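Self-study notes.
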Amino acid sequence: MNERYPRPDGGHARATPARRAVHASRAGLAAALTIAAALAALPAHAEKADRDKPLNIEADNMSYDDLGQKNIFTGHVVATKGTIVIKADRVEVTQDPQGYQYATGTSSGNNLSYFRQKRDGLDEYIDGNAVRIDYDGKNDFTKLTTRAVVRRLQGLTKVQDEVHGSVITYDGQKDFYTATAGKDQAGPGNPNGRVRAMLAPRSGGAAPLNGSPATLSPSNTIQGNPQQ
C-alpha cells in the first residue's frame, strides 16, 4: 500500500484541489494515506547536480570487501554527495561499471539513520530518519525502511509536512514519494501501524529561489492492498 506524491508534468501553474479525507478500505486493517505533491510553475526536482558530485565519507573505521566489491564504513558515519547527507552507524558503498554510486546506511538500537537532500530551485529540503536508508545514485532514488519518517522543510528548520510509515521512498528525479504502513508503526492510538501525515496549510508555502512554492494535497484514491 503506497502513498504517492506526484508532481505536474508541465511547468504551468495548476490549481490545488481541496483536501479530501482518506478512508480505510477495510476496517481494522492498515491502510495507506495517498498524498499528491503538485508543483506550480517551474518543476522542482531534487538538486540536479547531486549525482554528479563526489561522495565524501567520514567514519571511525573503513574496510573493503573485495568479494562483494564494496566499501564498508562503521562508527558515526557521515556521507555527503552534493546537498545529500546520510548519517548512520554503518554505511556500505558500491559503484556500478558506469560509475554510479549506491549507499546503504543502517543503525541499531535506538539510533536511526538520517537522510537529507535539497530540492532544486527552492529553499526547501527533504529529510528523514529510518533504521535503514538506501540511496540509488543512478536514479536519484532513496528508500527509508523501518520506523521511517520524512519531512519537507522550509529552509533547514521549519517543518511544512511530515509523513510516518514503515517504508517511505523518495524519487528525487520526479519529486515523487510513497509511504507504506507496517507493524513497526503500531503504538497507542495506532494499533494497526497505519501511515500518518501532518500537512501544513498552504496559505504561505515555501520561499522559492525561483518559481512558485511547492504544494501538497491529499489524493482521492487509496492504492495497494492493506496489510493483513
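Second protein, same conventions, sequence then structure:
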Amino acid sequence: MKTPPLKRSLKKIVFVQESRKYLAFAAATALIASSTAYASNNSQSKVTNDARSTDEEKQAISFSGSGYIGYRHDSNVSVSELDTNSNVDDSAVQSEAQLRVSVKPTDKWENELSISQVNTKYQTLSEFDLGLTTLSASTKYALDFAKLGAHYYHASAKLAGRDFLTYQQYGLSAGKLVGQRAYLRISSDLIDKKFENRPENTPIRDSEAVAVRSDLFYFFEGEDFFQIALKYQNEDAQDNAFDFTGKGIDLAYTYPFAVFSKPLELKVAYQLDMRDYASEQDGGIGREDDRHLVEMSADYAVYDHVEIRLSTQYGDFASTVDGANYQETIAELGINVHF
C-alpha cells in the first residue's frame, strides 16, 4: 500500500528542512548571508529526497547521499559576519557533498547522522573562498500527542583556507499534525560561535545565543504547500557592541508538477530578519539591521537521480553600520546527483 500523499510530503519536507537548516543556516552565519538558506533552515541544504515507500520506511538502517556542482555569479561578494562587502562582482564554482545514515529501531523511533562538505571558490576574489564542513545528529520519537526530537549541529568554516568560524547548535523540537492539512513544528536551540584567526586590534565576536522558532506547513489538494515561520534570537557576545535581539519571519511556497513527464519543483521564498544591537549605554552603538532576502528556484529531475537546479536570490541588507549596509544578487545553475 502506498504512503498517503500528505505523509510523503511531511516526511520529505521535514528532512529537507533539517538538511537545509544546518547547511544554509551555518553557511549564512559563517560567511554569505544571501547563500541558499533554510532556510535554512535550511538549511534553510540543497538535498532533495524522493518520497519513500512503506517498505523502505520499515528498514532499520538506510543510507542516502548527494553530490552537487554549480556555477554562480555574485554581484557583491561579502562576509556578513564581519560586516564586510567587497562592492565587487565575481563568479564562483559551488560544490557540495553529503552522506546521511538513518537508523530506525522501531516504527516510532528514528535517528539520523549526516556529514557534508560545501565549497565556494571564486575566480578572482580568492580571499572570500569558503570551505564549510558540517556534522549533524538527531533523534526523534513519535508519541500520541506529538513527535519529539533532539538535534545537534557542528559546523567548521574556513575562509581563504584558514580557520574562520566554529559554530555549534543544540536543540529540542516538537511536531504535530494539525487537522488533515497542516503540520506545526516548534524548536528551541542554544548556539555557540567562536571566531578563529582574528586580526590584532579587532573586536572579539565570540558569542552564545538562545533561539526559538515555529514552522507551520499547510498542504493543498495537490503536493504544493505553503510554509510560514516565526523566529526569535537573543545573542550575547563577548564584546557588548555585538549583543543583539533578533526577530524575523520566513515565507515560502513550493509547487511541484510535471514537465514532459519529469518532476519539476518551483519555490518562491522570502526572509525578513530584524536585529536590534546593544545601545550606547550598554557599550554598543545603537545599531539596527533589517535584512530582506527573496529567493526563487527550480529543480528539474532529468533522470531518476539527477536534477538540474536554477536559482536566483536578491538580498537587501539595510544597516546603520556602513560595512553591513549593502545589496547583493546571486544567480546559480547546477546539477545535483543523489541516491
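Instructor comment on the second fold: Confidence is low (pLDDT under 50) at residues 11-57.
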